[in-house]
Amino acid sequence: MCFMLTINDFAPVFMAETSEGRFAFHDWIGASWCLLISHPERPVPACADEAVALAALRGAFLRRGCALVGLVARPVDRLGAWREAGGMPVGYPLIGDSDLRVAKRFGIVPPEASAGCPLSAAGAARSVFLIAPDKRIRLILTYPIGIARNFDEILRALDGLQEGDLHPVGLPPYPAVA
Q: What single DSSP character describes residue 27?
């Protein structure tokens, strides 16, 4: 049976090595929102597109009090290709998760996945979690390995969640494209 987190579950508590040193995840989030994005073991073409898109929107997330962190199924000392995805620094810490311990806690890979197994073979997806300051998961998106995520949509969802926390309103969808 595969454990799956759902909206309003508490985000897993863990310690991890990152590209910026060791941290306790909940302590690192502090009173901020957090966007956690998972990456496959090796960059796929969609990853470079995402790195550029997220770098362009990084300031917008930070202005909204949302910290960014990536999760990669590699040892921290082997994150070189990830630190400059798309030819530019990613601008946020990367969690080295070579044993898939964190990925399993978030339900990104099945519990039987083993370390060293390529994530695509382990049935992994490229996931997105928006975590509120109370450490509850407020949004979960899952993409196939080769499909780039839409960070404009994730930013729109963050705006909606934050506004909805302040006022009893819903966020309308973007106008439909014909």
A: H
**Separation of alpha carbons 36 and 6, rounded Å:** 15
- Helix and strand element counts for the chain (H, E): 5, 7
CB 73 within 8 A of CB 103: yes
DSSP string, 148-172: ---HHHHHHHHHHHHHHHHSS--PP
Copy the structure tokens of residue 68: 């960014």
- pLDDT tens for 10-26 read 999 999 999 889 999 99
Q: Determine whether 66 is an active site residue.
A: no
The single residue of 2, 34, 47, 66 carrying the catalytic annotation is 47
How many CB atoms are located within 10 Å of the residue 36 CB? 22
Q: How many domains does the chain have?
A: 1
- CATH of residue 146's domain is 3.40.30.10
- 3-class DSSP state for residue 121? coil
pLDDT at 57 over 70: yes
pTM of the model: 0.85
Q: Which domain holds residue 96?
A: 15-166
